[in-house]
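Message: Just now I want nothing more than another pair of eyes on a protein record. I am handing you a single protein, as its sequence and its fold in token form. As I understand it, each token names a local backbone shape. Take your time, and here it is.
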Amino acid sequence: MENNENEITYVKVIGFGELGKKVEDIISEEYLSDEENFGIEMTMFDTSNSIVDVGLLLEGVDLLILVADPSEFNDFQKLIISKAREKDILSLCMTSRSRLYSMKEEEFYTGILDCGIDSLFTFYMNTKSTGDGNEMIPYEKKALEERIACSIHALVSMVNIPQAINLDFDDLRTILKDGGMAQIGLGYSSGEKKATEATAMAMDPYNNAWDMTEATNFLINVVGDISLMDGSLAADYIRARTSEEANIIFGACYDDKYEDACRILIIASKFIQRPVKVNSLKRQYEWLWQ
């Protein structure tokens, strides 16, 4: 498919530290090599090269994505987030998360949200393996940096590549502007029940930091050998498990390289309550520090 250059969403991905560098390398090598005018530009920073014109850095940007470990949080990131908010740029942060409670991580999440980031996505540093050897189900098996890079690519593809039921940047902004803690999930399945099975995989609570059923905003994108009914089935699966007031936006794209199969991207935001209850979790794991 060819993009309409007039409708391209300009995405700026800014990486910090080792995690940012790994994500940059994967996106550059695996996702951008064969793409033209895809809309992504990568920038890497370390703690020594933060003397830049932030206004110029964000010139023309529609969507800003910061990639950093909690240990990389610094004043320069705060400045970037502040300037993005001033320019009304949709700003996201993608970072790592331990499976056990970490006060340092919670301080980072709170700090970056207080700075004005629109939505914060966290990814577990390790996930289970499906163990089935199916190359079309790579997401759960990938390393942290690969899952973040895969998520960024899926998100940008969704808004920059035309689809049967189109999703655009305004839809993404509706879901993620001031979205707070957010979650992104990807799933894959084949056969008669591919839509619902892929949706269940994307919402799997073992692989997601937050329980998606507690979110109130959802954006779903179904890609593959699908009908419009498959998109409806995915939306119905989520609707049956969430609040009646949940806002669900879905898109669909036919792609014949997925023979009788589909891939689903789900973005969830605006949780009913903040998913992390710091005090209760600290008590739950207090024995670890004794």
About this structure: The chain has one domain: 9-271. Strands lie at 11-16, 40-45, 63-67, 90-97, 119-124, 180-190, 215-224, 247-254, 261-271. Confidence is low (pLDDT under 50) at residues 1-6, 128-138, 276-290.
